[in-house]
# Entry
Amino acid sequence: MLNDLKDFLLNDFFVTGDPLILGSQVAIALSIVAIVFVLTYFKKWKWLWTEWLTTVDHKRIGIMYIIASLLMLFRGGVDALLMRVQLAAPQLEFLHADHYNQIFTTHGVIMILFMAMPLMFGLFNIVLPLQIGARDVAYPFLNALSFWLFFWGAMLFNVSFVIGGSPDTGWLAYPPLSGLQLSPGVGQDFYIWGIQISGIGSLATGINFVATILKMRAPGMKLMDMPMFAWSVLASCVTIMFAFPILTVTLFLLFLDRYLGAHFFTLDAGGNPMMYINLIWMWGHPEVYIVILPAFGIFSEVVSTFARKKLFGYKSMVFALMSISVASFFTWAHHFFTMGSGANVNAFFAITTMIIAIPTGVKVFNWLFTMFRGRITFSTPMLWTIAFIPCFVIGGMTGVLLSVAPADFQFHNSYFLIAHFHQVLIGGVVFGYFAGLYYWWPKLFGFKLHEGLGKWAFWFWNIGFYVCFMPQYVLGLMGMTRRFNEYDFDMGWQPLNIVSTVGAFLMGIAFIFQVWQIAHSIKFLKKEKTGDAWDGRTLEWSIPSPPPVYNFARLPQVSGRDPWWEEKQRIARGEQPSPLPPLEPIHMPKNSGIPFIMSFFWFVAGFGFVWDWKWMIIPGLAGVVICMLIRSFSYDTDYYISVEEIERTEAKLRGAY
Ligand code: HEM
Ligand SMILES: [Cu+2]
# Structure
């Protein structure tokens, strides 16, 4: 009995045998001990619970999303560097095939679902309510629940690294490879449950922000007065609402195939693996637009702030964002032109894909015209924006090349594709979110990030990016295919691969600069006292940084676009500032531990499903249901902030009142 247990723990449960993983296991264990020690020593447990784990404040939830996503960027980045080391020279024996398969899978999943998505949600949370003059999102409790579902889902996915083994069937896990027969291990189950749990959180966030935008705008703010970032959030969240249910269902069917021996995606008993591939891309293609649309919004804000001009072509920008969101649902089959759907189907999807280039091009011209004759300041957010434009244009054009169905028979699954999607994901999404992070950082924390170190990071990222990925276009044309861990000497791929690996390490250095930049800026903290760090145009800059819990002491009255800029112009012309209505008590939601606890029970149930341990599944699911019941019957969920307290807080934050 005891021997059986030992056998199970050492052979199946813990991942053993690999020195790299052993090292990480020790590092993880030490970090956990260190965190527990620090929290206990400084008596911070209560603070952690009351201020953070139970918070429903959109700003704090946003900060937690951003911290989590930067940690995930680190992990995904280490995965990327390991792969680039293996590929630097022919026939290296650094990562063996199984291990390489696991690493490209976890890298892809983590970068898209656990890095890009939470970084995006972090920015939504922090910025959107402030920009539309709201005191929180429409459903603050649901918002906290979304975050913790994401968090525990990501934890479930990440533990597979040390427990049970990582998934290894690619970031979209096509059957039959991901079926029980060909992937009997638990890695694939960690994939299903980790993504499923966090995906439900993402769906809820999408619904929450659509409701927030439609119902919570400041008095007088018409939809067509909203800042462009708010429009991009709307476009992205509408896309989430229609795309994420497809993911949930698809993963559930895959689960049924594996768990109950159903045959949705097997050729025998009437199923079809192509159905999975269609379904997963019906979510997967919109997903990449979900993450790029907000970046377009960020660039629009940054460009008009730093060129000190109104955004050029507001209406066409809105139209472009919303039409991309719709069109993104009609292009999915361009991911498998080679799978034999026939010429007519391929032609349809080739054309829809090409059409997307039109609204995208419109936006690029709008940004250029906004900059034209502007008085541009080259602060870090603006640098990221300027670097993004050529990078995204090249990435987009290689995308159009890929959309030519017959040509794709050559490009498909080659390094040409790898270079293309990294160019739009790094040059578009990552650069975009960095621009946003640098731009809104002072609003978030009340101090700016050190510009000098930021510029070093910027140049290392940019040069590293081109050095890493430009050679991969050529390698792709030379025939190098993706998802291979080694190649022969006589292929002639060696020189370009070395260059590419050097580029990857330059980006690694860039990341170190960013960590240094944050540490340095905290150490030599220069408080930003005006609340308006960049001479901004939209409402978030009209309140102190960091904003008080209730954001706006009085809900702003809006008429027209760029309300804060207009107000500053009026004052500069010597006109009276708009009269202030009297303060009123503010209605706020109360903190709650339920989102954290309920999501933890989902983690327990998910872990039970992974190992098929009914003794764990049942209490896990029961915990979820009990949490729902408790919440349904609790009525003490809100409170009022009194006028005196608002006056005190405002006096403290604004100096005098
Ligand atoms: C920071 C620099 C990065 C480097 C050096 C890098 C490198 C790589 C490498 C070497 C592969 C595997 C190629 C193969 O063997 O098939 C890969 C795959 C992938 N990467 Fe990255 N990557 C980076 C950033 C990103 C980012 C930011 C994202 C997404 C936001 C991303 C998403 C993906 C995806 C989805 C895959 C496909 C995984 C699969 O084949 O299932 N990568 N990357
Ligand atoms: Cu696509």
Q: What stands out?
A: The mean pLDDT is 94. The longest helix spans residues 97-131. The beta strands are 586-589, 638-641. The pocket of protoporphyrin IX containing FE (ligand 1) is lined by residues 77, 80, 83-84, 104-105, 107-108, 111-112, 116, 170-171, 418, 422, 425-426, 429-430, 468, 482-483, 504, 507 (CB under 6 Å).
